[in-house]
Amino acid sequence: MASSRAILRRGYTDLSDLGCDVDKTDNSKYINDPIHGYINLDDQVLQFIDTPQFQRLRHLKQLGSSYYVFPGGSHNRFEHCIGTSYLASEVVHGFATRQPDLGIDGRDTRCVTLAGLCHDLGHGPFSHVFDNEFIPRACPGMTWSHEQGSEMMLHHAIDENHIDIDADDVKFVKQLIQGSSRPVPGEKMFLFDIVANKRNGVDVDKFDYIQRDCYNVGVNSSYDFQRLMLNSRVIDDEVCYNSKEAYNLTEMFHTRYSLHKRVYSHRAAKAIEFMLVDAMLLADPVLHISQAVNSPSLYQSLTDEIVRDIERSPASELREAQEIIARIHTRDIYKFVDEFILPADMAHLANSAQINEAMVVGYRSDNDDFSERDVLIDFCLIHYGMRKDNPVDRINFYSKYNTAESFSIASNLISLCVPEKYEERIIRIFTRTPSKRGQIQGAARRLMESLSSRITSDSSSSSSAPITPNRGLTLPNSLTLSPAKKRRLDLC
Questions:
Q1: How far apart, in whole angstroms, are the C-alpha atoms of residue 87 and residue 90?
Q2: Per-residue pLDDT at 487
Q3: Angstrom distance (rounded) from CA 228 to CA 211
Q4: Is 146 a catalytic residue?
Q5: Are 162 and 203 in the same domain?
Q6: pLDDT of amino acid 221
Q7: Catalytic: which of 80, 146, 156, 266?
Q8: This prediction's pTM
Q9: SS (H, E, C) the chain
Q10: Beta carbons of 81 and 11 less than 8 angstroms apart
Q11: Which of 447, 406, 35, 29 is nearest to 241 (CA)?
């Protein structure tokens, strides 16, 4: 008989009508997901989904500010978490079926499934914008991450909804969400490779978000996560993959890099991100946005709707924040000015101690009139998932001739066309004041030329080379255009 999933895709809605094993006494449900097809939600999963804490994820865009640039990217953390939970469950069940000697029990399956479901419970407004950009500026010195938020909201969901779950299970779920590459006493370490893999980054969280994001923004994905799941097994307490999947894994990490390059770090999305952070910082003294990270009841109400809360408020103190949001609506956004991809010997410049707004102002021409407030600097780091390292080098494989021993595969045995470097550091300049864009570009280029010349002259490496401005980004000294044409060329 065909699989229940395939049968459902042909249009059936009740598996029991086809002789499939379905427990009619439970309260499970099926949902039709555009990425994974029909997903069964059992009692355990539903008791968490049907809570205000999880339903909150319907109001958090998966792509944050990138949704303002990619209209199709309207999907939310809600469906991503359900998809991740489904894949986590599928992986565990697959291992239990193919390798019964692993001793996978009900607790293992239950906790890994819940970890996939609850791993993003703690995201704030506009996802990573909140914990990576807003909180560090609103609360200098505070160390806080969305994983910590997920733990907080997990406990809150359990307490507020009286969910019957063992305390040891809650502890294990939290450990699985955080991930670990070191032994956790009493636990099977391969289970930590499934949701948040700290060894090499191959996990079901990536399987879902890469496929879901590509689908929604219209970017083609060139790897097959289903093949990876089918061609995986546990060896020496670690998830390993069939050696024939080496290039498939390389393509997965390349797709991840491509999404960061083309979508997550899009220039316009970053400009809008700066605006959202500015608006929230201005609103924080009135709406106490940052204080919510210490209160699960407050955090439960904190979503992307914070923009609407600011707009609706009659408080005169929020007028400046409201004006920034109005600029987003009318597409009068902060403007991208320039970018510099740093060579390896200049990578140390990618921080505010080495390059900052005051330094750009210090290279103004005599007739320039911009100030630090007009300048915004973004230190953008894009990589394959393991900073300078090739993540595939950290993956262990097995041969179809011997499924009991694992080994690594050198990059040159996978392809001679893989990258030589796996991360890039980019300094990007933006401005809050579009009319001063040309002035700021000139000053930024003079600053980078000075820094580059100094490093090149001090370096003994023959590979050192000065940074050359990108002619494709060079603004014209004078150009007579209509306002509409300037808008289309992003010159105003």
A1: 5
A2: 64
A3: 13
A4: yes
A5: yes
A6: 87
A7: 146
A8: 0.90
A9: CCCHHHHHHCCCCCHHHHCCCCCCCCCCEEEEECCCEEEEECHHHHHHHCCHHHHHHHHCECCHHHHHCCCCCCCEHHHHHHHHHHHHHHHHHHHHHHCHHHCCCHHHHHHHHHHHHHCCCCCECCEHHHHHHHHHHHCCCCCCCHHHHHHHHHHHHHHHCCCCCCHHHHHHHHHHHHCCCCCCCCCCHHHHHCCCCCCCCCCHHHHHHHHHHHHHHCCCCCCCHHHHHHCEEEECCEEEEEHHHHHHHHHHHHHHHHHHHHHHCCHHHHHHHHHHHHHHHHHHHHHCCHHHHHCHHHHCCCCCCHHHHHHHCCCHHHHHHHHHHHHHHCCCCCEEEEEEECCHHHHHHCCCCCCCHHHHHCCCCCCCCCCHHHEEEEEEEEECCCCCCCHHHHCCEEECCEEEEEECCCHHHCCCCCCCCCEEEEEEEEECCHHHHHHHHHHHHHHHHHHHHHHHHHCCCCCCCCCCCCHHHCCCCCCCCCHHHHHHCCCC
A10: no
A11: 406
The DSSP bridge partners found for residue 430 are 336, 376
CA distance 80 to 35: 10
Q: In this structure, what token pair is assigned to residue 134?
A: 């807003």
Please check whether residues 96 and 56 belong to one and the same domain: yes
* Residue at token pair 């809050």: 432
Residues 6+ apart with CB under 8 A from 2: none
User: Is 32 inside a domain boundary?
Assistant: yes
Query: Same domain, yes or no, for 390 and 441?
Result: no
Do 109 and 172 meet the contact criterion of CB atoms below 8 Å apart? no
In a domain, 154, yes or no: yes
In which domain, by residue range, is 445 found?
A: 334-379+423-454
- Domain count of the fold of the chain: 2
- Mean pLDDT of successive 10-residue segments in the chain (492 residues)? 38 36 61 96 96 98 97 97 98 97 97 97 95 95 92 97 96 94 91 97 98 95 94 98 97 96 97 98 97 96 97 97 97 96 89 95 95 97 95 97 97 92 96 95 95 77 70 80 65 60
CATH of the domain at 373: 3.30.70
Whole-number Å distance between alpha carbons of 453 and 237: 51
- Exposure b/e, 464-492, CB count within 10 A at least 16 = b: beebeeeeeeeeeeeeeeeeeeeeeeebe
Cα-Cα-Cα-Cα torsion 142, 259, 214, 206, nearest 10 degrees, comes to: -50
- Asked if the structure places residue 224 within a domain, the reply is yes
| Residues contacting 52, CB < 8 A, separation 6+ | 160, 300
Residue 403 counted as domain residue: yes
